[in-house]
Design a protein that fits this description.
Structural class: alpha/beta
Strand content: 15-25%
Shape: globular
Strand order of the largest sheet: 2-5-4-1-6-7-8-9
Number of strands: 15
Distance between the termini: 51 Å
Oligomer: single chain
Order of helices and strands: EHEEEHEHEHEHHEEHEHEHEHEHEHE
């Protein structure tokens, strides 16, 4: 789907809603492919807390992070460190030393852009960050917001979860922009926040960019006409909040269904097999990431990628630790790249019992790996990265290997669909080496 003019006389106005650094990365990939640009002086102003529809402290432009000048790929949590320090004041993350900076980026004009900022198609993009409360996620989002600004896009930071009244301030402050937008881009169609915002917009174009493996489930549910439920929760009874929110969720599903009045695009690097009628699927090959970073320096060791399956209640914590220990020993892994939602307690236990160097990335792993240094072999459990890393690292010679989840690792409360879904994530991955589930030594 190429950029379209919203109304005669003005460029197409695009609002992108993101709640995680991976979603923002994929918005940048989508915008790079479609040649979008910053609204410029004539576009909607980036609001401050005082002028955003009464949002007060709940709305603000993103403050520049206080970062040191020396770039580095990640934060290292040593095995001997105590509980990780959390810098709530700066939306930072757990760390045991200086937070490395994003390398200085000169502004790059999208393909087809002239020096004055004109882009073929005349499309505009404003990124709206619906900020979560998790410190690690906030820290990565701030760094991704810097990269978005370096690309020339406007960023609007919303403290969307900053208290009881924050959602009302956020929605009220965004209502005008939502009604004027010609295109809405979203990273998480399962998000109640996003579903609520969809009830306000009149946009004719809706775009869903990758939010990892959840994208596969979203497209399948849309094709089958099912209610939108995250895969690891499917099979359980709807809670009171689910029932209360059901009308909004149903409305969002209808709006995400293509019609004569609405176009829907899915921009994904994940395998999409059940494509709903009328939905356009565009492949994300990480062209922006490959053009912007690297190629990386390759080390001779192996790196291991962590997962938050323990935190989401799918995999037993003790079984997971045992699997990591055996996988690292079998393949000579020395570093463990933590998922942003992994708990500090679990990571300190991993460091103490496996000897792995625990690394908490300050950017999505696709960018960390592309910047390097990175191991010649990257080991992972079933997750988004087994699909995205081969694309981001194409031509570098790095091998990505995925280890299956043994059914005995699942918790008693795991969704009945968990094993099949995780096997599907592994089985559909391209350009990866598949490992059998590791067994105790």
């Amino acid at each position: 789907m190429s950029p379209r003019a919203g109304q005669a006389g003005h460029p197409a106005r695009t609002l992108a809603f993101v709640e995680s650094p991976v979603q923002l990365l994929n918005v940048l990939e989508w915008a790079h492919l479609h040649g979008l640009h910053d609204p410029g002086p004539s576009g909607p102003a980036e609001p401050s807390g005082a002028d955003a529809g009464g949002a007060g402290a709940a709305t603000a432009s993103v403050p520049p992070p206080a970062l040191p000048t020396q770039p580095g790929p990640a934060q290292i949590v040593p095995a001997h460190a105590g509980p990780a320090h959390v810098d709530h004041a700066h939306g930072g993350s757990a760390h045991a030393g200086p937070v490395p900076a994003v390398p200085a980026q000169g502004r790059r004009l999208p393909a087809g852009a002239a020096a004055g900022g004109a882009v073929a198609g005349g499309a505009e993009l404003t990124v709206v960050v619906l900020s979560p409360t998790d410190p690690m996620t906030r820290g990565q989002l701030r760094r991704m917001a810097d990269l978005a600004r370096d690309e020339g896009y406007r960023v609007r930071w919303e403290e969307a979860r900053g208290g009881t009244t924050a959602p009302f301030h956020t929605i009220g402050g965004l209502a005008g922009s939502l009604r004027r937008a010609d295109r809405i881009v979203m990273g998480d169609p399962f998000s109640r926040y996003v579903q609520l915002l969809l009830t306000i917009t009149r946009a004719r174009d809706l775009v869903v960019v990758d939010d990892g493996t959840a994208t596969m489930e979203f497209v399948a549910q849309l094709a089958r006409g099912e209610r939108l439920v995250r895969w690891h929760r499917k099979g359980g009874r709807p809670g009171a909040r689910d029932l209360l929110f059901a009308p909004v969720s149903s409305s969002a599903r209808r709006r995400l269904t293509p019609s004569d009045r609405r176009r829907v695009e899915v921009f994904s690097s994940m395998p999409v097999t059940e494509i709903p009628d009328g939905v356009t699927v565009t492949a994300n090959d990480f062209a922006w990431t490959r053009a912007r970073f690297g190629p990386p320096r390759i080390t001779q060791s192996a790196d291991l990628v962590g997962t938050s399956l323990v935190e989401t209640g799918v995999v037993d914590g003790d079984r997971y630790l045992e699997a990591v220990r055996n996988l690292a020993k079998a393949h000579g892994a020395t570093r463990y790249f933590a998922h942003r939602r992994e708990s500090a307690e679990k990571l300190h236990r991993l460091a103490a019992e496996t000897g792995l160097e625990i690394v908490r990335p300050d950017l999505p792993l696709e960018l960390i790996a592309r910047r390097g240094p990175i191991g010649r072999t990257i080991l992972s459990f079933p997750s988004t990265v087994v699909h995205t890393l081969p694309l981001a690292l194409a031509g570098t010679g790095v091998r990505v290997a995925v280890c299956d989840i043994d059914p005995t690792w699942l918790t008693d409360t795991a969704s009945p669909r968990a094993q099949g879904f995780l096997s599907g994530v592994t089985g559909t991955a391209r350009d990866v080496h598949r490992l059998a589930a590791v067994s105790p030594a």
